[in-house]
Please model this.
Amino acid sequence: DADVTQTPRNRITKTGKRIMLECSQTKGHDRMYWYRQDPGLGLRLIYYSFDVKDINKGEISDGYSVSRQAQAKFSLSLESAIPNQTALYFCATSDPNRGLDEAFFGQGTRLTVV
Amino acid sequence: AQSVTQLDSQVPVFEEAPVELRCNYSSSVSVYLFWYVQYPNQGLQLLLKYLSGSTLVKGINGFEAEFNKSQTSFHLRKPSVHISDTAEYFCAVRSRGNTDKLIFGTGTRLQVFP
Model:
């Protein structure tokens, strides 16, 4: 089983719909991140969480919200999806307090908003 | 705040030729540096990282990178590429001090031709 699991892997939704992307990890890491990837723009940080009670906005948080339900779970919501939110979304974890400065990524969720 | 610049969006190269993918960063404090690889339709995988110590870092698949503090660079190199190295490569930076997030460059697509 993957250490960082994202569900769903693919999703098509209509403009205006609310959608939630879920991420769970079995690594026991404190930090979790949501990124979106667009061609030519690389990965841009949407939200990040250093622990359950610490959630921070990233570069492009407008139109998104998150919930850290437990150390192992970090969900990303699009309250009212719009077409320019069509992208590949990645969840990641890290734990610098254990010397794990690099991020460990899930397999991604491909979201299409029509 | 830190930032990462990958000047080359695409690098075409013939098989068995050497390659260098460039990465420059800016930060007001000391940093940790990373290179990730993304194969088609997959998530991101860590290639190598620089945390401290020797400025020449060796990673997986024969890649290496050199940290140059005076030039604020962390270029990735491989002396002889294979077709299987065709992928997108991302440079990333995180500032030291346990307070900051991982920021990515826009990526370089390496295309290896036979």
Summary: Residues 47 and 57 of chain A are 5 Å apart (CA to CA). DSSP finds no helices and eleven strands in chain A. Chain A touches chain B at residues 33, 35, 40-45, 48, 56, 58, 90, 92, 94, 96-97, 101-108 (CB under 8 Å). Chain A has a mean pLDDT of 93.
